[in-house]
Amino acid sequence: MNNNENRATLLFYPPVDNANSWHMTFEGFEAALKRHFPDAATQMIPTMFRGGTYLDFEVTIGQGADVQGMATIPVEECGCITLIGVSPDEAAPVAKWLRDGFSPSPELIRFSSEGAMEIGDETHWELPTAGGEEEIAEDLRAHIAYVESV
Known about the structure:
The protein is an alpha+beta fold. Helix content is 32%, strand content 30%.
């Protein structure tokens, strides 16, 4: 794992035109997360935004690296998974699990980053529908490089 890579806060979500396609609930996401990452630590956190909540989580991936994130449900059954300050290699195992083990179909994963939102880029990047963590990490690297070049 290359920890010298640029880090980013990455967001993973369903296609905008099919926003509730994941049929996400906090309970369902938490259960699926803990099945795949048995050491996952989770906590529901209240927000001031319309009395809402989000699910804070931390998982350990290969080589003992921890990934922190949060799951939000801005609209019923529409989830957004945010990974905070991760390298593409750290994000890839979680993104692959989202694609292969959580989303009902590999075609239903889009991603962006906090950096893209800050520059006003509204592009919805598609996670590769096949391939392993290397292919996913490469697409995440390309996204980060694009954002940094704008």
